[in-house]
Write a structure and sequence with these properties.
The chain is of the alpha+beta class and 102 residues long. It has a domain of 70 residues. Helices cover 25% and strands 32% of the residues. It has two helices and six strands, in the order βαββββαβ. Strands 1-6-2-3-4-5 form a six-stranded antiparallel beta sheet, with helices on one face. Strand 2 and strand 3 form a beta hairpin. Helix 1 crosses helix 2. It is globular. The two termini are 15 Å apart. The mean pLDDT is 86.
Amino acid sequence: MALINIQSAIKQVRQIVRKLDPPQGVEILTYKRNRGITIIKIDDDTLSVMERGYEENTFQVGMGGLAKLLKSIAKREFPRSRKVRVYQLDSPYCIGIKRKQI
Protein backbone atom coordinates (compact mmCIF):
# COMPACT_ATOMS: atom_id res chain seq x y z
CA MET A 1 0.00 0.00 0.00
CA ALA A 2 1.14 3.56 -0.58
CA LEU A 3 2.25 5.96 2.11
CA ILE A 4 -0.68 7.43 4.02
CA ASN A 5 -1.03 10.09 6.71
CA ILE A 6 -0.54 8.66 10.21
CA GLN A 7 -3.75 10.22 11.61
CA SER A 8 -5.90 8.74 8.86
CA ALA A 9 -3.99 5.43 9.14
CA ILE A 10 -5.29 4.88 12.68
CA LYS A 11 -8.87 5.42 11.52
CA GLN A 12 -8.39 3.17 8.49
CA VAL A 13 -6.78 0.42 10.57
CA ARG A 14 -9.76 0.40 12.94
CA GLN A 15 -12.13 -0.01 10.00
CA ILE A 16 -10.01 -2.73 8.39
CA VAL A 17 -9.65 -4.71 11.63
CA ARG A 18 -13.43 -4.77 12.15
CA LYS A 19 -13.89 -6.46 8.77
CA LEU A 20 -11.15 -9.08 9.24
CA ASP A 21 -11.74 -12.72 10.12
CA PRO A 22 -9.54 -14.26 12.83
CA PRO A 23 -6.50 -14.78 12.62
CA GLN A 24 -5.94 -12.12 9.95
CA GLY A 25 -4.21 -8.87 10.81
CA VAL A 26 -2.77 -5.50 9.83
CA GLU A 27 0.80 -4.22 9.90
CA ILE A 28 1.74 -0.52 10.15
CA LEU A 29 5.35 0.23 9.15
CA THR A 30 7.57 3.30 8.86
CA TYR A 31 8.84 4.54 5.51
CA LYS A 32 12.02 2.45 5.86
CA ARG A 33 10.05 -0.52 7.24
CA ASN A 34 12.41 -0.89 10.22
CA ARG A 35 9.82 -0.17 12.97
CA GLY A 36 6.20 -1.11 13.15
CA ILE A 37 2.99 -2.16 14.85
CA THR A 38 1.29 -5.47 14.09
CA ILE A 39 -2.35 -6.13 14.98
CA ILE A 40 -3.68 -9.70 14.86
CA LYS A 41 -7.37 -10.40 15.39
CA ILE A 42 -7.64 -13.30 17.87
CA ASP A 43 -11.44 -13.43 18.01
CA ASP A 44 -14.32 -11.05 17.31
CA ASP A 45 -13.48 -8.69 20.20
CA THR A 46 -9.88 -9.49 21.20
CA LEU A 47 -6.78 -8.20 19.43
CA SER A 48 -3.09 -8.85 19.90
CA VAL A 49 -1.00 -5.72 19.29
CA MET A 50 2.77 -6.15 18.87
CA GLU A 51 5.14 -3.20 18.97
CA ARG A 52 8.50 -3.61 17.20
CA GLY A 53 11.10 -0.85 17.11
CA TYR A 54 12.32 1.29 19.98
CA GLU A 55 10.50 -1.03 22.39
CA GLU A 56 9.35 -4.64 22.00
CA ASN A 57 5.93 -5.11 23.62
CA THR A 58 2.82 -7.22 23.14
CA PHE A 59 -0.63 -6.11 24.29
CA GLN A 60 -4.04 -7.80 24.47
CA VAL A 61 -6.80 -5.26 23.88
CA GLY A 62 -10.48 -5.13 22.95
CA MET A 63 -11.86 -3.32 19.93
CA GLY A 64 -12.85 -0.36 22.10
CA GLY A 65 -9.34 0.29 23.39
CA LEU A 66 -7.55 -0.08 20.06
CA ALA A 67 -7.56 3.60 19.02
CA LYS A 68 -6.12 4.85 22.31
CA LEU A 69 -3.42 2.17 22.33
CA LEU A 70 -2.46 2.85 18.70
CA LYS A 71 -2.12 6.58 19.35
CA SER A 72 0.21 6.02 22.30
CA ILE A 73 2.34 3.46 20.47
CA ALA A 74 2.47 5.62 17.32
CA LYS A 75 3.85 8.56 19.31
CA ARG A 76 6.61 6.32 20.66
CA GLU A 77 7.45 4.36 17.50
CA PHE A 78 6.85 7.03 14.84
CA PRO A 79 7.91 10.27 16.60
CA ARG A 80 8.79 12.30 13.49
CA SER A 81 6.85 10.33 10.89
CA ARG A 82 3.92 11.91 9.13
CA LYS A 83 3.39 9.05 6.68
CA VAL A 84 3.28 5.29 7.31
CA ARG A 85 2.70 2.12 5.29
CA VAL A 86 -0.25 -0.18 6.04
CA TYR A 87 -0.30 -3.83 4.95
CA GLN A 88 -3.01 -6.45 5.46
CA LEU A 89 -1.82 -9.85 6.72
CA ASP A 90 -3.59 -13.07 5.76
CA SER A 91 -2.30 -14.99 8.78
CA PRO A 92 0.00 -14.56 11.79
CA TYR A 93 2.69 -16.45 9.86
CA CYS A 94 3.11 -13.40 7.58
CA ILE A 95 4.57 -11.34 10.45
CA GLY A 96 8.14 -10.32 9.88
CA ILE A 97 8.25 -11.09 6.17
CA LYS A 98 11.00 -8.97 4.68
CA ARG A 99 9.52 -6.36 2.43
CA LYS A 100 11.46 -4.31 -0.08
CA GLN A 101 13.91 -2.04 1.78
CA ILE A 102 14.60 1.47 0.54
